[in-house]
Amino acid sequence: MFFGAGGAAALLLSGCADRQNTLAPHSSAARSITTLWWVMFIGSTIVVMVVSLLVVLAFLRRRGSLDHVEARGESPRARNAVLVSGALVPAVVLTILFVYVLTSVPATAEPKPKDAKLTIDVGGKQWFWTVRYPAQHVTTANELHIPVGVPVRVRVHTDDVIHSFWVPELNRKIDMIPGYDNSVLLEADRAGVYRGQCAEFCGLQHANMAFYVVAEPRAAFGRWVAREQRPPAAGAPGATLFTQVGCGGCHTIAGLSTGTVGPDLTHVGGRMTLAAGTIPQTRADLERWIGDPQHIKPGNKMPALHLTGSQIKRLAAYLESLR
Amino acid sequence: MSEQLSVPVALQRGRPLGWWGMLMLVATEAVLFGSMIASYFYLRFRTPQWPPVGVPEPKVLYPVLLTVVLVLSSLPAAVASRSARRGRPGQAAWGLVATLALASVYAAGTSVLVVRAWHHAGAQRDAYDSLFFTLQGAHVAHVAVGVLINLFLVGKLSRGRLTRYRANGIWAMSLYWHFVNVLAVGVLLTTISPAL
Amino acid sequence: MSTVVGREELERLELLWAERSGLKTFLTTCDHKKIGTRYLVTSFVFFVAGGVAALTMRTQLATANGGIVGPKVYNELFSMHGVTMIFFFVTPMLNGFGNYMVPLQIGARDMAFPRMNALSYWIFLASGLFMYSSFLVGAAPDDGWFNYTPLAEHAFTPGRNIDFYNLGLLFLTVSSTVGATNFLVTIFKLRAPGMSLNRIPLFCWGIAAQSFSLIFALPALSAANIFLELERRFGFHFFDRANGGDALLWQHLFWIFGHPDVYIIFLPAVGIVSTIVPVFARRSMIAHDWLALATMATAFIGFGVWVHHMFATGLSNVTYAFYSAASMVIVIPSGVQIFGWLATLLKGRPVIRSPLLYILGFVVTFVIGGVTGVMFAAIPFDQQVTDTYFVVAHFHYVLFGGAVFPIFAAIHYWYPKLTGRMLDERLATWSFWTFFVGFNLTFFPMHVLGLLGEPRRVYTYHSGFGWGIWNLISTIGAFTLAAGILGTVVNVVRSRRAGAVAGPDPWGANTLEWATSSPPPEYNFPSIPVVRSVDPNWDVEDRRDDIRRLEHAELTLTGGHETIGTDWLDGNIEEVHEGPAESPWPLLLALALSWFFLAFLAGHWVLAGIGAALTAAAVGGWQLKEPGE
Question: How far, in Å, CA of B165 to CA of A55, rounded?
Fold first, then answer.
């Protein structure tokens, strides 16, 4: 219930869900990366302090003069100091770091197909995300739901340009490259809403290509899946208008249309945001979007439709009813 | 006070600056072709079917023969370079002419083969075709440039003396020809590799 | 001049080398000092252009949902900012210093190929104008400076944007390749007698390492540019999966060039640091030979790390482990260099002047950039923060810190040599601190923004992420940095007339450019210096010997436009080289090539063919007048 559209929108507006903070990890994978960061941060601070100290020391000594050359030629002791501090010490430190890095790689690795309790196929398209749950026969867009504490294998793909699937608080990013089958692990250790954003420049609206990952207890997740599996009621008012205006040419609504240029709208009313995280899912925003999508997300693939106010209202009401 | 101030002098003169410049040019062009050849094999080993279905395997006999002809041109090129450095303009000119004749045979023959293959296939079809034509085209272009430069050098020799500057130029061009000929073997082996 | 012989030699040199001022000389000069100055001025203009793009972006991003520019313009701005700064500012600026100083530092009268030197400048200018003309038609490159496919393919960027990118870079590559060849042959064959390999100044080592890297790295980029252009124009296939291609092929080719490119930028810059540190520490450089070795080692290892730009692309962990290790190994030579400089300062008696301030700024900022670089070698951390503002912070710390600070140090250090005047120290000091504070205010917050999850290359962002405050600080920093740069520009312009007279050696420096007047005469040195140590200008007796040789007409080379050639290892004299004076052919060849590239861009194949023919004709014309004729 808490994760109905209204609750989600409230979450959004309160700012709790608008975080992509790599230093606030909510999975063991993200936590291992954050720990790695803090270790390297401390080491780096020490290095910078030492070098800065040496610079300061150089100037605490007696100053020279441009008319006089202080010393010519080499200094064997200084040469050795250079070798030790510039080559030997870094070599030792970096070797230790390298070993630590190698041991931390498995923590972020995706589960093998046979170990994955849940598999989700996410596709990147300019500029939104297609989402499919193959085993559950669920298709949606721009929002993933996962059960808490379950390792999920997210398989990513794309047919247009390179995108990158990234939920900072849950794990590293993985590029979506045409012709490549990449995967990433998503496992949230507590319920919450986690924001992700495309992390490989993909054209005009790269900046507005975001998505949400909703981690919820198993029962709630099961209920969400059931809702998504249910086809929309036939004969809903507004469905005819949807087809008449031509929306179905780009958008799929189960039982009504099969367009794939834009996101699947079968259960759009149940999602937290519209246009891949660009605007919240409210009636007013939905009407604004249908009325003038180019104003909100200039260059996106939805053209201006030049509808009347009443048509916009009826379409928005219809779409909002698709939960 | 006219004491001899010590100045270190070498025992012999080195290669001309132009030769070193040509060496740098040859190095960079070698890496250019290396990049293209590496791209060929990179794509080849990512594709299960290479050449793709419907594309015939590359011809072997004529390309090999033509490459042998081209590689032979290293001999007159070396002769031209040696003769020029020894102050024999006539021999140098004949060396240049023989080099460009052999190279022209290669260029003409390869162009005929490539144009025929183009009409059969057309580069629009696949990465296999694209790499084949790009590699061949780039190599023939390098041979053509060499032929033009050789013609220019022959022209200069026929209208004037064999100066040190011109001898250095012929020396540098012989390096260019050796490079082009080694490259020819590399390009050949790459483009016929599916048939091997 | 005390003797008749000496005076007569000087007169002969004047006659042989003097260039009259005027338009004809302007267009036909092959004098490395004039060409070097042009490189410096032209690069700085591009710096300002790239900086304006940056300030526009920072203004847009200062607040959430900024409305200064829309996505189309923003994407062109960030792409051209990168292309400009890397290809048209920082590398040519360093080459400008190289052009001016390398012949002087090695005791030569000019570069090995003076006309090629002029050619590389004209092509640099032409390719820069070519690239910028894209703005005039509203089609500037807009897929980022590394231009990944498939986005850069015709299907997704149908406009001319990427054709400008491919052709502009191919055009510029001619300039860079010619320049690299010139520097290598000059440094290895034209040094003063006695300047053995271990006595080559570290700035020249930096330029040599850069030049080797250019020779071996540029072709990978050219192959990528050629492939993409063939794909866009003629329907070839290299990068699209559907037809047997591979999107990652572009990334491999690009980064095989792209990573060495950062060392192409970095190595001459640290050569500048190695030039300035001994002078202001008042002692010879500690471990000079190791620093030279470290320079070449960095260039070499730099070819083996490129996959660290691709840690998020899903390749195997075994592959990633290798490149992670290589990316850590490359830290070692840089560590040797940093401690070499610190040791020299600690064992010397430092004198603080504006050049040294910028060097100290470099040390701090480069080390910060270096440690974040090590962080990026840690694969999982890279996979978290790559493509965010954290990497933007990293590379600005290493590139700005590692190259722009040394460039500003070089401006302050070599200004007296170029102009004969000193810069105003007070204004320089104020400008430095504004510059340093502004730089850190701009780029330090970007580390935080990356950790907070702000991706790079976004034209806008929503409020509520906590990004606004850091973005605002960064924008304030950017304008502060601009003010610091402006201060230096004002200083440079004003001091041409108002600066104190410098004399030949105002810094008491150790390298040969300070052994001649400021600015140097056309022929650089009246008699070619003979070198017997790594700090030749501190060998007072040797420099007196140069004058004695002039008075005996020895090593004055007054037979023509001559300089001395020595062997690459020991610096023993091999022969005297005669070089060309002024020539119109470099400019004509650059114009012919411009014709070719413009015609190709527009798709006029006949015109392009004519351009190719004109190019061939210009090459022929170039060879018509041989030296000595």
Answer: 53
Nearest to B28 among C215, C245, C554 (CB): C215
- Give the one of C223, C554, C575 whose C-beta lies nearest to B35's C-beta: C223
**Does the residue A208 lie in any domain?**
yes
Contacts of B128 in chain C (CB under 8 A): 244
Query: Within an 8 Å CB–CB cutoff, is residue A182 touching chain C?
Result: yes
Check: pTM over 0.90? Answer yes or no. yes
Is A292 inside a domain boundary? yes
For C:588-617, CB contacts with A below 8 A are none
Domain boundary (A75, A108, A141) is at A108
Q: Do residues A11 and A85 both lie within one domain?
A: yes
**What is the pLDDT, as a whole number, of residue B123?**
59
pLDDT averaged over every residue in chain A: 93
In this complex, the residue of C184, C220, C627 whose CB is nearest that of residue B24 is: C184
Cβ within 8 Å of residue C331, ≥6 positions away = A90, A94, C370, C373, C374
pLDDT at B2: 40
SS3 letters for C103-148? HHHCCCCCCCCHHHHHHHHHHHHHHHHHHHHHHHCCCCCCCCCCCC
List the subunits that have 3+ CB pairs under 8 angstroms with A.
Answer: C
Place of tokens 């701090």: C364
In a domain, A234, yes or no: no
ipTM of the complex: 0.95
Cα separation, A19 vs B36, whole angstroms = 45
Check CB contact of C387 with chain A, cutoff 8 Å. yes
Partners for B (CB, 8 Å, 3+ pairs)?
C
Q: Is A40 on the interface with C (CB under 8 A)?
A: yes
Indicate which CATH number applies to the domain containing A211. 2.60.40.420
Same domain, yes or no: A271 and A316: yes
Given an 8 Å threshold on Cβ–Cβ distance, is C574 in contact with B31?
Answer: no
pLDDT, one tens digit per residue, over A19-65 is 999 999 999 999 999 999 999 999 999 999 999 999 999 888 889 99
Domain boundary among A60, A77, A108: A108
Buried b (16+ CB within 10 A) or exposed e, C478-511: bebbbebbebbeebbeebeeebeebebbbbbbbb
Residue C97: the pLDDT is 98
Instruction: List CB contacts (< 8 A) between B163 and chain C.
Output: 626, 628
* Percent helix, strand and coil across chain A, each to the nearest 5: 40, 20, 40
Q: Residues C124-154: pLDDT tens digits?
A: 999 999 999 999 999 999 999 999 999 999 9
Confidence of residue C628 (pLDDT cuts 50, 70, 90): low
CB contacts, 8 Å: B50 with chain C: 244
Interface probe with C: pick from A22, A34, A153, most Cβ of C within 10 Å: A22
Q: Which two tokens stand for residue C195?
A: 């300047």
| Residue range(s) defining the domain that contains residue A225 | 113-229
